[in-house]
Amino acid sequence: MNFDKAGFKNSFINQLQSMYGKGLEEADLYEQYMAFGACVREVISQNWIRTRQQYRSKNEKQVFYFSMEFLLGKLLDMYLIHLGLKEPCRQALAELGIDLAALAEAEPDAGLGNGGLGRLAACLLDSMAAMHLPGHGCGIRYKYGLFEQKIVDHHQVELPDNWLKNGYIWEYRKADKTVEVRFGGRITQIIQPDKWMFVHEDYEPVLAVPYDIPIVGYQNRTVNTLRLWSAEPAAIDFDLSSFNRGDYSRAVEYRHSVERISKILYPDDTHYEGRLLRLKQQYFFVSAGLQSILHCFKQRALPWRTLPEKVGVHINDTHPALAIPELMRLLIDEAGLGWEEAWNITVNTISYTNHTTMPEALEKWPVDMLEKLLPRIYLIIQEIHERLCRTVWDKTQSWDAVSEIAIIADGQVHMARLAVVGSYSVNGVAQIHSEILKNHTFAGFSRLYPYKFNNKTNGITHRRWLIKSNPALAELISRTIDSSWIKYPCDLIQLVNYAQDESLQQQFAAIKRQNKLKLAQFISNKYDIQVDVDSIFDVQVKRLHAYKRQILNVLHIMHLYNKLRENPQLDMVPRTFIFAGKAAPGYYIAKQTIKLIHVLAEKINHDTAIQGKLKVVFLENYSVSLAEMIISAADVSEQISTASKEASGTGNMKFMMNGAITIGTMDGANIEIKQAVGDANIVIFGLTAKQVFDYYHYGGYSAWDMYHNDPRIKTVMEQLVDGFFQEEREEFRPLYNDLLHNNDEFFVLKDFAAYCDAQRVVENKFRHSREWQKMALMNIAHSGIFSSDRMGSEYSVGIWKIKPVIITG
Ligand code: 26Q
């Protein structure tokens, strides 16, 4: 792209003037950021309009990825990289005395997601745009993203994330594309000569107003759209509605109840809770999204049966599964189709990704809640359920078989079952996870529809997680093997040829050390903790959850500390254990784990007897931006979930791409990372999924046996409750009880010894610097297949059947 530096500086100054009425010297950093953003918007919008025009005229199939979460992080840097404008803009701004990096920091993180599922959606959109694929996002414009985490007296406290407070430069309000979504009310059936008609009355109308965010392709003119819906009150005439004349307070109440719908992102990533507002959110964005898609489709004047040839609707977990009955409703009640035809169209339009097999995370909505909030939708779900049960009964004559697949059971609607029946493709997110789905979670369905089940192993965008977050490493790679890997990430494999090259190893080590220095500075400034840059940076960053086993890491740190206290001269490589992650506000054990990490850090970091060989740091408010800094500085990547529990994991991929060595279990994508890098370049330990299933099934595990037979375990467990770390002895009793009295559901104690051994292997490998750098380079070399470009093309070819549409300029 041609860049006119003088012109750019001019328009930047003009923007500052027109937006804030200020000259360059008067404007603060945020105002400068906004004005610069406005300049970038201009560049983007030209290609955006072009992309829309050409998608329309080429008339190819487009996919819409429906997700309750899009965890975008900051966008300015990504836009500049993708537009090829980063370096020229940096120079132009520098001439005005402005530091681009500081401007970029002023952008708020768009934190509209809890964790992996939301970040996956963001990586996928990035890859689709990079590969010219016509794919868009559909979600909710939460006023408040995931809470901001503060640590106060070692406790997590949650503060609202008011990310929109100063205006968001990357969104475009499209008021003219507003649609209405209807809640509550009654359904009456009118019997017409040829069919049934359903009339919806006394409903509460809600306006869904779209805000569009451009998704810019990598140096290719494609600009796709992420459409986020915001709920606004309808300008209903209260006199004409069911409301009483002049009922002012009801009007205010109505306004509030509407605005609540898109107010907050629910801060939970596993424990399903049947909250009415969350159900409202789900229907709200699904209905709005489908209405706008069908509206566009209608303008093309094609027969309805061709919808699946032109439109794909993908549901990111079951959160948007109401898309199935909603599409049925729109086709039957609005377009006038019969059930069979509508069902065919629906099933061939919708595809579904599952992200968990943990029973407590599978969504189930109480029948009475659904019936009351969405009466027409409930009728449709009932019909789907009855037809499905009849089919299975006719096939099997077995009540067990029927009850295994029933959508409505025990007064609840099983959303995952609805999602499987109502879509043509069901995929898991790693090989092992997809096998567990077929053979356990959805065994009944996989006998019924074996052809629906498939695997699409997760991926991450190497543009954010390497080019943006670790530019020095990206440049080193390009200097070594040329830059083809940026377009074809699997070309990273060429690094294998240089993994033993001493000069490359040294350059890689120098970059890693620089990144560690930057993180160490951050830690020193923010927490006044001094960490040794030459220590092993051993990192576990992710949501806090029992199955992710942060506690296993913690118990091992306690054990190392005990060894050091016993023998301060112990010959060990200094280690810095780094944690970050949020706990769901109501998840007591997860919050206690955060507290324990802090208590441990306090004691260890201040103990001069251990000569700084051990440091523990918890970085608060984990976010995409923080992840970028931490991951590029990591030596060791902790991926230690109980085998079978982590569907995939995607942090693991970000770490390997930045040359960290994984210590991990045979779970999720770790298994495929091991296949890719080979046994010599990863440290694996612990129970396998099969062993875990066997223990659950046949019993035979006793946490107390572990306690009695391994003195290391006994010591650290007792230290949890004997006042060793904490004056208030009972503080960590619940953790102690979970591991012992409740028999350690996630096999922490069972895997403890293997984990200690694995950590010793890691340490010994680190001592051999050249071997270590070689392993790191081998990890980077094999990380290409974990690019979300690979994932995105597998979805496009294997599920959606969509083709690239090259945008011309
Ligand atoms: C459900 C009901 C009520 C409130 C919240 C929720 C809810 C919200 C978010 C349930 C689940 C989530 C998010 C789940 C998630 O992030 N799963 C992760 O998905 C990643 C991408 O596939 C995987 O890599 C992780 O293994 C998986 O845990």
List keywords for this structure.
809 residues; alpha/beta; Rossmann fold; 2 domains; 10-stranded mixed beta sheet; 25 strands; 49% helix; binds ligand 26Q; pyridoxal phosphate binding; transferase
Please characterize this protein's 3D structure.
It is built from 33 helices and 25 strands. The protein has 809 residues and is of the alpha/beta class. Strands 1, 4, 7, 8, 11, 12, 13, 14, 18 and 19 form a 10-stranded mixed sheet that branches. A 6-stranded parallel sheet has the order 22-21-20-23-24-25, with helices on both faces. The mean pLDDT is 96. Bound molecules: ligand 26Q. Ligand 26Q binds at residues 114-117, 120, 266, 268-270, 272-273, 278, 355-356, 361, 363, 429, 458, 646-650, 668. Ligand 26Q binds next to helix 6.
Secondary-structure blueprint of this entry?
Layout: H1 5-20, H2 29-58, E1 62-66, E2 70-73, H3 76-83, H4 86-95, H5 100-105, E3 110-112, H6 116-130, E4 135-140, E5 148-152, E6 155-159, E7 172-173, E8 179-183, E9 186-191, E10 196-201, E11 204-216, E12 223-233, H7 248-261, H8 276-299, H9 307-310, E13 311-316, H10 323-334, H11 339-349, E14 350-353, E15 364-366, H12 367-373, H13 375-396, H14 399-405, E16 408-409, E17 412-414, H15 415-421, E18 425-428, H16 431-441, H17 443-448, E19 453-455, H18 462-468, H19 471-481, H20 484-487, H21 502-527, E20 536-541, H22 550-566, E21 575-580, H23 588-605, E22 614-619, H24 624-632, E23 636-639, H25 651-657, E24 661-664, H26 670-677, E25 683-684, H27 689-698, H28 703-709, H29 711-721, H30 733-739, H31 748-767, H32 769-781, H33 788-800
Parallel strand pairs: 1-4, 1-13, 4-12, 13-14, 14-18, 18-19, 20-21, 20-23, 21-22, 23-24, 24-25
Antiparallel strand pairs: 2-3, 5-6, 7-11, 8-11, 9-10, 11-12, 15-17, 16-17
This protein binds ligand 26Q.
Ligand 26Q binds at residues 114-117, 120, 266, 268-270, 272-273, 278, 355-356, 361, 363, 429, 458, 646-650, 668.
